[in-house]
Amino acid sequence: MAISSEKELQQLRSRLNDLARKSFQQNMFTFTGFLGLSEQDIFWQEEQQLRYAGCTLWGGDEQCDRKVLRFGSADELGYEEPFAIACIHITPLMEKFADDFSHRDFLGALMNLGIERSTLGDIRVGHREAYLFCLESIAQFICDNLDQVKHTHVRCQIVTELKELPQEEPETVTVQAVSERIDAVIAKVYNKSRNDVLELFRTGKVYVSGRLCENNSRMLKEQEIVNVRGFGKFVYLGVKNETRKGKLSIQAAVYR
C-alpha cells in the first residue's frame, strides 16, 4: 500500500512493531508483504526501536526496489528461514504478434486479478517480456490466471534458478555540476531545472538508499542509490575530476 494518510502511517508503524514483538517473544521469523519506498522509509524511521528483533530487507534480487521486511536473527533463533519470494517469467504466446509492454501494462493486468499490491514486488520489463517478483503464496495463482496483458495472450512460468534472470545494466553517464549536492546532481542526470528538482523534494519523490530525502542540499556519497520516483534511479559514482572552470565532473550509473 502507498502511505496516503496519517492513519495509514500509524497502522504501518503498529504493524511493524507487532511483527517485531511477535518475532522476539515467540522466537520465530515474521515477515511483512512487499514494501514500497515510502513504506520502507517508515521502517527506517522506526529502525532503532525495531532492531532488537533483527531486521532484514530483501526483494528477491540485489536490484529490487520493493522489498519484504523480515524480523528475526538466525544467530539468535538457531535456524534460518528464507524469504518466501518467487520469480515469474511472463512471455507472449506468439511473440510475432505481441504488443510492446510497459511496467504499467503488466501491473495493471496483475491488479485486475484482484490481488493485493503487497503480494507483488518489482516487475522487470524486457523486450515483450517481464520478470515478476512476488510472494510464493500467490505465484501459482498468477500463473494460473494471468493470461493476457493489453491485447496479447501470455504464459507465466516460475523461474527455478534466479541465475536465469537477466540483470538490468545501468548506463554510466558523466555530468558537470557545481557540487555534489543531491539537487544539483539530480538536475544534471535527468536534465531538469532547479525548480523542477525542488518540486520533487517538496512532493516526497526522492529517496537515498531506501530513505526519504527531504534535504535538497544533502551531499551525496559514493555508491549511494538515489531513487527519483517517476524517473528511475542511479548509483552515485563520485567525482571524476574538476574542470578548468571549477565545475565537478561527476559520474553516475543510471537505470532508465
Keyphrases for this structure?
256 residues, Structural Genomics Hypothetical 15.5 Kd Protein In mrcA-pckA Intergenic Region, Chain A, Ribosomal Protein S8, Chain: A, domain 1, alpha+beta, globular, 3 domains, 7 helices, 6-stranded antiparallel sheet, Alpha-Beta Plaits, 5-stranded antiparallel sheet
Explain this structure to me?
- The chain has 256 residues and is α+β, with helices and mostly antiparallel strands.
- The chain folds into 3 domains: 6-77, Ribosomal Protein S8, Chain: A, domain 1 (2-Layer Sandwich); 85-164, Alpha-Beta Plaits, CATH 3.30.70.330; 171-255, RNA-binding S4 domain (Structural Genomics Hypothetical 15.5 Kd Protein In mrcA-pckA Intergenic Region, Chain A).
- The chain is built from 7 helices and 14 strands.
- The strands form 3 sheets. It has a 6-stranded antiparallel sheet. Strands 5-6-4-8-7 form a 5-stranded antiparallel sheet.
- It is globular.
- 28% of the residues are buried.
- The model has no long low-confidence stretch (mean pLDDT 92).
Discrete helix count: 7
- Overall pLDDT, averaged? 92
- Taken as a percent bin, the fraction of beta residues is 25-35%
CATH class of the largest domain: Alpha Beta
Percent of residues in helices comes to 25-40%
Low-confidence stretches: none
Q: Based on helices, strands and strand pairing, what is the structural class? A: alpha+beta
CATH architectural designation of the largest domain:
Roll
> H/E element string?
HEHEEHEHEEHEEEHHEEEEE
Number of structural domains: 3
Rg over C-alpha atoms, rounded to the nearest angstrom: 20 Å
Oligomer: single chain
Q: How many strands in all? A: 14
Terminal CA distance reads 24 Å
Give the biggest sheet: 6 strands, antiparallel
Identify the CATH homologous superfamily of the largest domain: RNA-binding S4 domain
CATH topology of the largest domain: Structural Genomics Hypothetical 15.5 Kd Protein In mrcA-pckA Intergenic Region, Chain A
Instruction: Assign an overall shape.
Output: globular
Strand order, main sheet: write it out.
9-14-13-12-10-11
